[in-house]
Each structure stands twice: as C-alpha cells, then as structure tokens.
Amino acid sequence: MRRVYSTALTGIFCAFLLAGCASVSSTSQFYFPTTADVYPPKDKNVPIPIFGKAPDRPFKTIGRLRFSSDLGWRFMRESMLYNARVNGADAVILRSSDSREVRRFAEVPPRTDWVPVPGPVIVSQCGKKGNNQTYYQTAPTYIPVFQPGYVRSWIDTVIGIDAEMIVFKPRS
Q1: What is the pLDDT of residues 23-65, one digit of tens each?
Q2: pTM of the prediction?
Q3: Under CATH, which architecture does the 28-103+154-172 domain have?
Q4: Which residues contact 137 (CB under 8 A, 6 or more apart)?
C-alpha cells in the first residue's frame, strides 16, 4: 500500500512540475524583436486581434514569434496574445501554421514490489496451572512480486506557428 501512495505522489508532483513548464510566459524565449524600438506593454483587458493576412491599415512589424508545441491551438493562441501584450503590439499576423502527428514513447522500467502477507500465528501460553492465558500473535511477512516493465506509445499533434507582432502607424 505504501508503494501505491509513493507512486501516486510522485505522479502528482510530476504533473505540477510539467504544468509549470507549460505556461505561455515560457514562449517569450521564441520572440525575436525586429526593431530597436521598445513599446510599452498592453493591459490584459486590451483586445489584440489575430489576423490571417496583413491588414489594410499601415503597420510596422516589431517582432516575430515562431515555435512548435504539442499543447494545442488554445495554448498557441494564448501565447501569441501574451507575447503581443508584453511587447506592446497592437495586433498579430499569423503568417503560417502547420500541424503534424508525432509518435511518442515512454518506458516504464521493471521493478520489484514487496507485498505483505499474513505471517504464521504464534501461540504462547503463560500463567500457572489452571490459570493459563493464551496469546495469538501474527507478524506480516513480505514476499517479492516482480512487475515487468513496458513501453507505452501515443500520438501527439504538434502545432507550429510563425506570427508577426505589429503596431499600427498613425493615419495621416
């Protein structure tokens, strides 16, 4: 039973650790500025449009975001919006996107678990004749149980994006 709790706690810890790695702020390492100009960050409530082609208004490209992830379209969209806001962009132009399926593998190594089984019953008698008391005691015995390892595979969809962060030029 202790082994089950240990494995479950390890799994929960790894899930929190991996969840921490999957934040949109971690995608800022893939943002490359294309100008020396620095723009103030936008507030979270400011809407940032994502265009599929260049808008009709005049604009200036201030940076580019290009990366791939297996966390889905929602994560990709949020990362584009996050990087646009942090770098002061007015909008995003999604220049290209692609998706591909990748087979992943995870190996679970073999292990030996120790399982408690009821041990022998020890009977002891003590006391004077006529006033005998009998005590029954058991001690658990542990036996090894081999758990064979295995390989698990699954298919991940990896999405790649190439986006430009833009600011609109004032209309003349």
Answers
A1: 888 888 999 999 999 999 999 999 999 999 999 999 999 999 9
A2: 0.65
A3: 2-Layer Sandwich (3.30)
A4: 121, 122, 124
